[in-house]
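Exercise 7.
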Amino acid sequence: MDLLNLTHPAPIQTISPAFCTTLDVLRLDLIDPVVSGNKWYKLKYNVLKVLEQSTKHPELPCALLTFGGPYSNHIHATAAAGMHFKIPTIGIIRGEDHPQTSPTLKDAADWGMQLEFISRSAYAEKDTEDFKSWIYEQYGHVHIVPEGGSNYLGLNGCMDILTGIDVQGYDAIVCAMGTGTTVAGLLLSTPATLPIYGVPVLKNGGFLKDEVRKHLFYFLVDQDAVTDIMDRLVILDQYHYGGYGKWTPELIQKMAEIEKEFQLPLDRVYTAKAFEALSDDALRDKKTLFIHTGGLQGNR
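Solution. The predicted structure, written as tokens, is:
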């Protein structure tokens, strides 16, 4: 599939789980076997920028550098995109404990990503100007993408997720939240009357409402417009199952049941938790579009 020119939407799967009559699932996990889900949409315009820079200055190849943990979907997708488009990639990886045990990082290395392991304390400084200066001194001509693809270009990509899909008939759109970038893109690209329900996969994830607000202001530079859009965002923050990267045997069992009954695979970090939120009272009797954000490799 031509990832840079997706001219048709991802497939929509209609199912009938016990808690509602019908539910539509936008299967972003099916747009590509590896660079799938919202991960590609957040990478799309960053990849285009690197390709453009390399075309303009072939004597100075530009690498794509980003950040993540040893099981990061974003690192995995970035490495795969780099191999696909013949772009050098660099991953700054959080932590130094047994990195060779991660199948995610093994894939990334096999696909040509240069991995740099740093301490958690150093990783916490990754957004500072001093750290960025170190990156440019160490690696030269690079395009830096924040963790999770949460920059302006990533937000632009997330605005493309619903291209070609008529959302007028829905009462709600539901999506997992990690950085808030995808939800911000959905808010910017949907009708002014359509509520977006965000499901944080982190404990105490209510703070993500402020992150979404920052993304919107960075894009619109209009506080009144941001306030109007934010009125459509509903945070359902009680479905984190203990926090980011945590789950219970009950959640794993529910994932297995959903896959068996509907042929709908979910991942335990993001989509399984967001799927649980679909039974929330706030969504009762609503015609809902659930965004499957991919990330299935994380189940390994």
